[in-house]
Amino acid sequence: MKDLVIILGAGESGVGAAILAKQKGFSCFVSDAGSIKPVHREELNALGIDWEEGKHDEVKILSASLVIKSPGIPEKNELVRKIRGKGIPVISEIEWAYRFTGDSKVIAITGSNGKTTTTALTYHICKQAGLDCALVGNIGYSFARQVAIDPKPWYVAEISSFQLDDIVQFRPHVAILTNITEDHLDRYDYQFRNYINSKFRIAMNQQASDYFIYCADDEVTVQYINEFNILSNPLPFSMRKELLQGAFIKDQEMNVVTADEKFQMSIYDFALKGKHNQYNTMAAGLAASVIGLRKDKIRDAIQSFEALEHRMEHVANVRGVEFINDSKATNVNSTWYALESMTRPVILILGGVDKGNDYSLLLDLVKEKVKAIVCMGTDNLKIHEAFGKDVAVMVNTGSAAEAVHSAFKLADKGDVVLLSPACASFDLFKNYEDRGKQFKDAVKAL
């Protein structure tokens, strides 16, 4: 047997990392301070992988030769500090999986907003064009599980800043950075620069034969890009200017221009509507183009893509009131994009676990489009302070059902009830999916 690998956290990424470690002949041990889901326990038992829950065996953990840390565990965690103090290498599951990919190539997507949609669309284009690929990372299977169970020549991976914090060798052939806005500042000592540095790590190992796709209209990205030694081919996308290389929209036409390919497509043919989705579509279209997919296949896939659950998802029309589930909007900027795309009066459901949010970014759109705010969280004080002077009606609720009922009472025919919380969901829900599901169930029960 090889050296002892410790996996901290037994969620999807942790269990995937353990499966891969076991398959590659490592001795491994999974430790979770919380409880492990029964389905994951069964998987670990079936493979003969040792695990513990509700505690950490520090003596065993500190004897590891390598620790694979769940992205949910912060650096300031006391056990992590002890591990670092002993000089034991700590990596993310993304890094672990990458070390066993061989000649396979990765298209990796990160960003504060739009990364899930961009990842799903990129994967859809690749699949439709006949590429043998898998969807991994924060969406789909864990990267390590996929590498262990069903390796592919191509992986399309959604990657968070937390996962990028613990990479060493990870090198995507195509890296996409959708944008950078203030998010997760609680994990970065409330220093925006730390978070910016984290996002740019996606390109840190890229070489001259790789591609770095980024938004030329994103002020933060453009301000900082030259401070990083990026060796790969830069491919910007923009709505504001024509580009010699990259993607841009002019006269309602998307133009994708790379060294080997050039094609156009009307934005009216995009399956995804809204300005923010035009950015996501340009990024995905560029990625598909640089890896050599045929332009007619790219066009067809962009037209046939279906929107994701919990991301601007139409739920129902009830007596002339439309309900939209945007539960995946876990930060202020996501909610800004959602409001920006609204064309009718909005009853906005906001709230949850605040991650250091600056609600002033929403104020102009709220004044213009929102007639009432329904707060859904255990602490709504910051929301009341931010919007109380400008929104006549604000109510507090303590569940998805209560929020839906309150919003429906406040809505008139022709209005939209928009769940776009701008916050994490852990106060009242398991995660944003649980929040979105409870919202949809409550709407269907009206």
UniProtKB/TrEMBL annotation:
An example of a GO molecular function for this protein is: ligase activity
Superkingdom of origin: Bacteria
Principal location class? cytoplasm
Asked whether the UniProt record includes Nucleotide-binding among its keywords, one would answer: yes
The job of this chain, per UniProt, is described as: Cell wall formation. Catalyzes the addition of glutamate to the nucleotide precursor UDP-N-acetylmuramoyl-L-alanine (UMA).
Record's family? Belongs to the MurCDEF family.
Record-linked NCBIfam families: murD
Annotated EC: 6.3.2.9
Its name, as the record gives it, is: UDP-N-acetylmuramoylalanine--D-glutamate ligase
Kindly state which keywords UniProt assigns to this record, in alphabetical order: ATP-binding, Cell cycle, Cell division, Cell shape, Cell wall biogenesis/degradation, Cytoplasm, Ligase, Nucleotide-binding, Peptidoglycan synthesis
PANTHER family linked to this entry? UDP-N-ACETYLMURAMOYLALANINE--D-GLUTAMATE LIGASE
